[in-house]
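Batch queue: ligand-bound targets. Current item pairs a single chain with S-adenosylmethionine. No template structures supplied; prediction is de novo from sequence plus SMILES. Inputs echoed for audit trail.
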Amino acid sequence: MNTKSCKPKKEFMMSELQPKEKCKSARLSSPSWENMKLKQLEGLLGGLDQFPNPKVELEQYPTGPHLASRMIFTAENSFEDISNKVVADFGCGCGTLGVAAALLSADYVLSIDIDPESLEIASLNAEELEVDMDFIQSNVMDLRWRGQTVDTVIMNPPFGTRKKGADLDFLNVALKVASQAVYSLHKTSTRDHVKRTALRDFNASNAEVLCELRYDLPKLYKFHKKKEVDIAVDLWRFVPAKHQS
Ligand SMILES: C[S@@+](CC[C@H](N)C(=O)[O-])C[C@H]1O[C@@H](n2cnc3c(N)ncnc32)[C@H](O)[C@@H]1O
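Prediction returned. Tokens below.
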């Protein structure tokens, strides 16, 4: 595991890349959140810098503030999986999900990405919002977790369009690492396969789609012909076998 201390670099510019996700489910909000309103969280996440030069081979597309805020808000508000928990953000990119967890009072947030440039931006984002997080530069598959306890893994993994099965590789590791829950986004077209694989092969005792979303990615890469790429995506909550709740 290669632990990296990320010095913020001021030259990273605010990215124009902001996916516009629309959540179809009403299950994702509740008026009883005491410490921070959902809209406030979304607003803070909307100010984060994102990938200036997204790397196609790493499937770098950011989780926009609308989806990210609802994902982490739901994890906390409906399941109490964030505040006072040890949270790991797999493939953290520019840090959006981990920052959201830190803002919702996670006890400790560890954000991991293979790409040092993204980690620099994530570190700057955390500093701008004055949240405490640690960053590790590593391939998620290479992590060794001896002695470390992680309650909750949050992630928007590569969907596997460049490296087949990348999303499930992430999920496999996440379900080995998390003691409490894994929150993840996967293409809706893979729903049956994801569920079957998680329950049968990856030690999940429960796999639930919390919300179906439309993930409208703006034109990120030169090979994208259309102005926007519209993908149907599921927000999942997985529970590792020994910790079902
Ligand atoms: C879809 S992006 C999500 C970024 C960020 N989590 C977000 O929600 O905005 C996937 C991220 O996974 C990272 N990544 C891809 N393969 C990886 C690997 N094997 N190990 C660690 N990170 C990886 C990419 O660099 C990228 O930042």
